[in-house]
Amino acid sequence: MMKRWHVLKRLLPLMAGVVLLLSACGRADLSTLNPQGAVAQEQFNLMKLSFIIMLLVVIVVFAIAIYVLVRFRRRPGDNKIPVQVEGNHKLEIIWTVIPLILLVILGVPTIQSVFALSQDYSKDPKAVVVNVTSHQYWWEFEYPGLGVKTAQELVVPIGTKIAVEAKSADVLHSFWIPALAGKIDTNPGGNVNRMYFETPAKEGIFLGKCAELCGPSHSLMDFKVKVVDQASFDNWVAAMKAPAVLPEDPAIAQKFQSQCLSCHAVGDMGGPAFPNLTGIGDRETVGGILVNTENPKYQNEGSTYDNLYRWIKDPQAVKPGNQMPKIDLTEQELAGISKYLAEYKLNYESETLANNDATDDSQESKE
């Protein structure tokens, strides 16, 4: 028994090292070490500067410590006390001035970046202003200058400054797009926080998350940032303002209006309280986490649009604690509504977006 304990004690440091190593593994688009925008790049440069300074300090301190341990170690028969440096004014000045210099080297660019990144671009005519409102557990995006409101997918044009004004509708959340910008808290009580980020000069899809523990489904509170060309963005804005398109089947249309439009909106119809469903068929995900694709697994339940079907059938099973109730619908109604929503596409993209990584975010990959 004692031998096993000694072996375990020897393995513990190795296991701890492996845990630390694996903790750095993860998705590339969830890493601040893979910047894709100007703001994220500036923040990354600050991190590199901080790391270089810390590494330099660690190397110097360890080098001095090792030198002292080797040079002044006690040798057999040698009881001579080394020369003491206490009160040496030259050394005291050196180890006081050097940290001050390092602080200035780190502090000056940090202060410059903090003030530069805190600029308010909401009045800039070239910027796209987005009012971000966080909910348990979804994201609402309103473009006040364009008269558009959507959810879960922030559509923005390439090479543009995005001025974000963020608040919360319930508890404290945090708006975070690792590859494009830093994060900012969304506070309840009408308190608005502001930030901005710049979109890259190419199309792409970037993952955003809530970075503040906000409830049982905090880890499932994802959103997408879809960067498109200017023509596609203009098409999207126009399509979002177009009149609503209801299901062709009168029975399904009546059920959708009575059960769904009391809370949700499509086009110019419905309530504003919960996620706008206009163009949901174009979105990468359902509920922020389920891939918006077909799956033969659910064909025998009346619909090939499995994730929309699953979400409508029992949203609490997908994202516990969210505010969408389970609706009393027949299998035929479930299939009809999920098919209608899956086919509700705006078809605004002038080109196909590359590097669609939404599959990695699916609920199936977590199960």
UniProtKB/TrEMBL annotation:
Domain Cytochrome oxidase subunit II copper A binding per the UniProt entry, residue ranges: 125-239
Enzyme class: translocase
InterPro entries per the UniProt record, alphabetical: CcO_II, CcO_II-like_C, Copper_CuA, Cupredoxin, Cyt_c-like_dom, Cyt_c-like_dom_sf, Cyt_c_oxidase_su2, Cyt_c_oxidase_su2_TM_dom
The keyword Heme is assigned to this record: yes
Every Cytochrome oxidase subunit II transmembrane region profile domain range: 24-121
Gene Ontology annotations of biological process type: ATP synthesis coupled electron transport
UniProt KW keywords: Copper, Electron transport, Heme, Iron, Membrane, Metal-binding, Respiratory chain, Translocase, Transmembrane, Transmembrane helix, Transport
Catalytic activity, as annotated: 4 Fe(II)-[cytochrome c] + O2 + 8 H(+)(in) = 4 Fe(III)-[cytochrome c] + 2 H2O + 4 H(+)(out)
Role this protein plays: Subunits I and II form the functional core of the enzyme complex. Electrons originating in cytochrome c are transferred via heme a and Cu(A) to the binuclear center formed by heme a3 and Cu(B).
Protein name: Cytochrome c oxidase subunit 2
